[in-house]
Write a structure and sequence with these properties.
Strand order of the largest sheet of chain A: 1-2
Shape of chain B: globular
Shape of chain A: flat
Number of helices of chain A: 14
Largest sheet of chain B: 6 strands, mixed
Radius of gyration of chain B: 18 Å
Helix content of chain A: 55-70%
Distance between the termini of chain B: 37 Å
Structural class of chain B: alpha/beta
Order of helices and strands of chain B: EEEHEEEEHEHHHEHEHEEHH
Radius of gyration of chain A: 28 Å
Structural class of chain A: mainly alpha
Oligomer: heterodimer
Number of strands of chain A: 2
Number of helices of chain B: 9
Order of helices and strands of chain A: HHHHHHHEEHHHHHHH
Largest interface: A-B, 24 and 33 residues
Largest sheet of chain A: 2 strands, antiparallel
């Protein structure tokens, strides 16, 4: 017992009521910003050249929404195959087998080292290079064969081109995630008799996901916009090409560009919501308590149950959110 | 007399040009508790890791339960075991690490069930029952649904012990199990280990806890610079060390 603790008063200590620090600079900043924003909005809205009437007329045009769907399909398919192939490539690169790791390295070298536009042109020309595709014994008889252009349509060529390019980038993201997992996890799992496959699938990859998802979200959104390059294949049914096509027929490029931009933003927003929940799912166990979803936050506000900072009502100890990366 | 649980004959281990183990000869009898002490860098953890083949030895022979670890002998040639065979050998050897190494993305119960369900392919109901029993034994029955990071260090290490026991090992290895813990949490982990020793489990414990070694250990081994300097009954070694090196080490830690 020290002297000071014996002097502690019996009742509750008096709450401090200090005058908070003033931030006049912030108010000045807000005022300056407000003026600038007002000028910008005024300039955009009242500028006739933007043709807002045309934007309003075409933004929900059936041709554009169909094109947005094609863009979304391209994005999802290319991303799906890109991620799957990327995981395989990352595991190959980390493999102790020198043949697998150098094969993966060469793949990355080629597909990251050449422009995606070039690759898309190449996939568009594949039926010129290989008019027929066949299944059979190498250098032996062929069982079935197809006309290449019937199998690899421009859409398929676009998906292949985007996915192969993406897989090279995803491979590095996945590799970063895998190497970020503590080696003690491998050892503990190995000591329990798990084989390499099991350790990767059940122990390492789920933990790597927390590192993998944020940059993958970047890649997904970047992919959404990269799909505008598939005109190189040439595939012209996606959002950008379609908006150009309509714009050319109207001789009004700007309003249709705005329409396309609105669609891109809308799809991106949906994808970002998905990313938020995915990150939240893989944050399981990494922080003491999961951060509330926006919906939960809203409900708490409505019920007036705003939790005091850093502490859940009724829940055991403090919820320290460690490096959640949940910043949307 | 039956085979010892662990038998090391002239075990050498090199990392590059650094020789960490320079001929270790040891035997751990069934049901015995061997404590290994020594300064850091003496090779005691490396030796422990060799026992379940987390490290591959460079020379000598190492047997667990009469089986060569990591190799198969045909005539006078050694053949490396396949990955699946090594994994199978490890099933019988439980290991507890200094930093617990629990799987942070799984609940406590998930940590205990992963290997029994997926490696031993036990039926889910029986495995769950056993996992809950084990949690009860280490005093954490109420933490089955918690995630490891919600637990204190001592609780995590007790879960790690239960996780290793869930595979019904014949031998338990402890690699400085209390070194990462706050002093007041050390006792709860040592209590669990003491209880485990009383059930007749064979244990090899690398530790700095001399009190535990004296009370629970059947044999105490002092290692330094990759060799066994002195071995004997803990009371004898601690009270009356024969080697100068042992004396000077003990005078610093006791």
């Amino acid at each position: 017992m020290t002297a000071t603790s014996q002097q502690a008063p019996a009742g509750a200590p008096e709450e401090i009521k200090a005058v908070p620090v003033r931030h006049p600079g912030r108010w000045v900043g807000v005022a300056v910003l407000a003026v600038l924003v007002a000028m910008l909005v005024n300039g955009v809205v009242n500028n006739k050249a933007y043709r807002w009437d045309t934007v309003g007329k075409y933004v929900f045009d059936q041709r554009l929404s169909a094109a947005a769907l094609v863009t979304l399909e391209l994005t999802v398919l290319a991303m799906f195959f890109g991620v799957v192939l990327g995981v395989i490539l990352a595991i190959m690169r980390l493999s102790p087998n020198p043949i697998l790791s150098s094969a993966a390295w060469i793949y990355l070298w080629i597909f990251r080292g050449t422009p995606v536009y070039t690759q898309l042109v190449f996939w568009g020309l594949i039926s010129v290079l290989y008019p027929r595709l066949g299944l059979g014994i190498p250098f032996g008889p062929e069982f079935v064969s197809f006309q290449t252009q019937n199998v690899i349509t421009f859409f398929v060529a676009a998906v292949i081109g985007l996915a192969l390019n993406e897989s090279a980038y995803m491979a590095e993201i996945v590799r970063a995630g895998i190497t970020s997992v503590d080696t003690g996890q491998h050892e503990a799992a190995a000591a329990l008799g798990m084989n390499r496959n099991h350790i990767m699938r059940r122990i390492v990859l789920p933990q790597a996901m927390r590192v993998i998802i944020p940059p993958t979200g970047n890649e997904l959104i970047s992919m959404l916009k990269t799909t505008s390059l598939v005109v190189a294949v040439p595939l012209t049914s996606e959002l950008y090409s379609k908006s150009r096509e309509i714009a050319l027929s109207l001789f009004q490029p700007v309003p249709l560009l705005i329409c396309a931009a609105i669609w891109y933003l809308a799809v991106t927003s949906i994808l970002m919501v998905g990313q938020y929940y995915l990150e939240r799912y893989y944050a399981r166990g990494s922080s003491r308590a999961l951060p509330p979803t926006p919906l939960e936050k809203l409900r708490m506000r409505l019920r007036g149950l705003r939790p005091p900072p850093g502490r859940d009502p009724g829940a055991p100890p403090i919820s320290v959110q460690r490096g959640g990366g949940l910043g949307i | 007399m039956s085979d010892p649980m662990v038998l090391a004959e002239g075990v050498h281990k090199r990392f590059g040009r650094l020789e960490v183990l320079k001929g270790i000869n040891l035997r751990v009898e069934r049901g015995a508790v061997m404590c290994v002490i020594g300064p850091s860098g003496s090779g005691k953890s490396t030796f422990l890791r060799c026992i379940n083949h987390l490290e591959q030895i460079n020379a000598g022979r190492l047997y667990v339960d009469g089986q060569l670890v990591g190799y198969r002998q045909r005539g006078d040639k050694l053949h490396e075991l396949r990955e699946a065979e090594i994994a199978k050998q490890r099933i019988d050897v439980g290991m507890v690490f200094q930093h617990f190494n629990l799987f942070p993305h799984m609940t406590v119960l998930g940590n205990l069930l992963e290997a029994p369900l997926k490696v031993r392919r036990e039926p889910k109901k029986a495995a769950t029952e056993r996992a809950r029993d084990l949690l009860d034994r280490v005093g954490l029955a109420d933490k089955a649904g918690a995630y490891p990071r919600q637990l204190s260090g001592g609780q995590q290490q007790r879960v790690a012990i239960a996780r290793a026991l869930a595979m019904r090992p014949k031998l338990m290895l402890f690699d400085e199990p209390t070194s990462a813990l706050d002093p007041e949490l050390v006792g709860e982990v040592l209590d669990v280990m003491r209880g485990l020793a009383e059930t007749g489990m064979t244990m090899v414990v690398v530790t700095h806890e001399m009190g535990f070694a004296r009370e629970v250990g059947d044999e105490l081994v002092f290692m330094d610079a990759g060799v066994v300097v002195e071995a004997g009954h803990p009371r004898d070694v601690l009270a009356n060390p024969q080697q100068e090196r042992t004396r000077s080490f003990l005078s610093k830690v006791l």
